[in-house]
């Protein structure tokens, strides 16, 4: 995913309509040019995450109120601060061109990019992408998650999961959560881009973004990366064990920034990664923890009340408790019944892995085990899967290995198809 493919992706992204082409469609007055120049010469502070989008939405609201007089200077300021923000440049060009048109009052912005016909024809696909980006950003403003609701995948998180991320591909939106004793709290959300061919990755090179439950595996500094990845990257553990079970291929799926010439990218523009504006990526990279931060990527996020999650988690907890009791008791026959016939553990079949399980049970010598920092995340598509993580601590010990299991429903019963130390 990263190498020659990334070089091709970078070249493709460079074909976007240049901001200067858009603004040339309507030349600013000398007074406007002077204000923009003065703004650019001012001392620039580091942009905050989400700030540019908030300013753009403010401009949209003014346009929707037919208040272009106040919208224009705000657009001037925005493009001066972020000259690589192509959508903002397009809106700015609209406002400049609109000075000679009668204002049209509208309840919402329905299109951007009122450029001359010749430019519209030569840059049709790029203008279409910018308009789609505009609509997705506005949709995120109009369709906010219900207050206090959380994604249905986050069934139970432990204190080790201090943060969590959910990506709604249908809205080109990433949601960042903080996890505390009182539960999950949405602390930020951002516009994102996914694969050129959309979602549901199956094969290496299919230009799709995978769907599922993943974890951040590392935090890559921008100093170690090409400019194409912007302010850094957060690699994910694709393919996960469910992906491997389903025969999916590919690798190198990252959450990463954007190159300097682009503030943001088109909704469908990556080779499978999730791309996000650099100020937003920087905030996320400063906030999350590697290995313990779950990242759910879904076609559409289902938002539910936390109490509903508690009821759903109880059903799975009963099965997990019975497996736990069987292992603590050392009942190999009962314990083995919890594993699927096609179980694997890092390439080993159930038959090949069973000696490992028997050795673990023998080592217990009648002592019980505690499942510490237990978390489980749900994934539902054609089947229901539970991704379970815990520290397995033997009675009398303070620490133990961290394990991950993947459970699936078979004929209404929960079974384990993967288990391993991570």
Model description:
This protein has 13 helices and 17 strands. The chain has helices at 4-13, 19-23, 30-41, 51-64, 68-81, 86-97, 117-122, 124-142, 241-245, 278-287, 306-329, 332-336, 350-364, and strands at residues 150-151, 163-168, 173-180, 183-195, 212-215, 233-235, 254-256, 268-270, 274-276, 294-298, 303-304, 339-345, 348-349, 369-380, 384-394, 402-410, 413-421. Helix 4 (51-64) runs antiparallel to helix 5 (68-81). With 422 residues, the chain is of the alpha+beta class. The two termini are 24 Å apart. A hairpin with a 7-residue loop joins strand 15 and strand 16. It folds into 3 domains: 18-122, no CATH class; 150-304, L,D-transpeptidase catalytic domain-like; 306-421, Nuclear Transport Factor 2, Chain: A, CATH 3.10.450. The longest helix has 24 residues, at 306-329. The strands form 3 sheets. Strands 2, 3, 4, 5, 6, 7, 8, 9 and 10 form a 9-stranded mixed β-sheet that branches. It has a 6-stranded mixed β-sheet with strand order 13-12-17-16-15-14, covered by helices on one side.
Write down the CATH topology of the largest domain: L,D-transpeptidase catalytic domain-like
Poorly predicted runs: 3-29, 39-43, 104-110
CATH C-level class of the largest domain is Mainly Beta
Number of domains: 3
Cα end-to-end separation = 24 Å
Strand content: 15-25%
Number of helices: 13
Output the CATH homologous superfamily of the largest domain.
L,D-transpeptidase catalytic domain-like
Mean pLDDT: 88
Helix content: 25-40%
Number of strands: 17
The largest sheet, given as strand count, sense and whether it forms a barrel, is: 9 strands, mixed
SSE succession: HHHHHHHHEEEEEEHEEEHEEHHEEHEEEE
Q: Round the Cα radius of gyration to an integer and report it.
A: 25 Å
Structural class: alpha+beta
Shape: elongated
């Amino acid at each position: 995913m990263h190498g020659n493919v990334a070089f091709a992706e970078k070249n493709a992204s460079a074909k976007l309509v240049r901001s200067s082409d858009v603004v040339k469609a309507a030349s600013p007055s000398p007074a406007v040019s002077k204000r923009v120049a003065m703004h650019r010469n001012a001392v620039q502070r580091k942009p905050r995450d989400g700030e540019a989008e908030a300013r753009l939405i403010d401009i949209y609201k003014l346009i929707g109120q037919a208040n272009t007089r106040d919208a224009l200077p705000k657009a001037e300021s925005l493009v001066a601060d972020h000259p690589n923000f192509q959508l903002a440049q397009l809106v700015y060009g609209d406002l400049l061109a609109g000075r000679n048109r009668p204002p049209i009052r509208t309840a919402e912005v329905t299109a951007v990019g009122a450029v001359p016909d010749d430019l519209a024809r030569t840059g049709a696909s790029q203008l279409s992408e910018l308009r789609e980006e505009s609509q997705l950003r506005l949709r995120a403003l109009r369709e906010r998650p219900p207050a206090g609701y959380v994604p249905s995948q986050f069934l139970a998180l432990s204190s080790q999961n201090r943060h969590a991320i959910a990506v709604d591909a249908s809205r080109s939106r990433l949601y960042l959560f903080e996890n505390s004793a009182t539960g999950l709290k949405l602390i930020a959300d951002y516009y994102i881009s996914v694969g050129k061919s959309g979602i549901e990755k199956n094969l290496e090179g299919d230009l799709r973004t995978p769907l599922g439950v993943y974890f951040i595996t590392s935090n890559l500094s921008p100093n170690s990366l090409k400019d194409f990845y912007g302010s850094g990257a957060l690699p994910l553990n694709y393919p996960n064990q469910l992906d491997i079970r389903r025969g999916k291929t590919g690798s190198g799926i990252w959450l990463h920034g954007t190159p300097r010439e682009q503030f943001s990218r088109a909704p469908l523009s990556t080779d499978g990664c999730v791309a996000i504006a650099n100020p937003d990526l920087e905030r996320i990279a400063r906030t999350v923890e590697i290995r313990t931060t779950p990242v759910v990527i879904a076609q559409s996020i289902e938002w539910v009340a936390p109490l509903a999650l508690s009821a759903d988690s109880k059903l799975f907890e009963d099965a997990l408790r019975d497996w736990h009791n069987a292992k603590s008791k050392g009942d190999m026959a009962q314990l083995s019944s919890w594993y699927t016939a096609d179980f694997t553990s890092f390439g080993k079949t159930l038959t090949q892995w069973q000696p490992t399980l028997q050795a673990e049970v023998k080592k217990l010598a009648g002592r019980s085990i505690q499942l510490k920092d237990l978390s489980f995340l749900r994934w539902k598509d054609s089947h229901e899967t539970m991704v379970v993580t815990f520290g397995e601590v033997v009675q009398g010990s303070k620490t133990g290995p961290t394990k991950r299991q993947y459970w699936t429903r078979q004929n209404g019963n929960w079974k384990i198809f993967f288990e391993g130390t991570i």
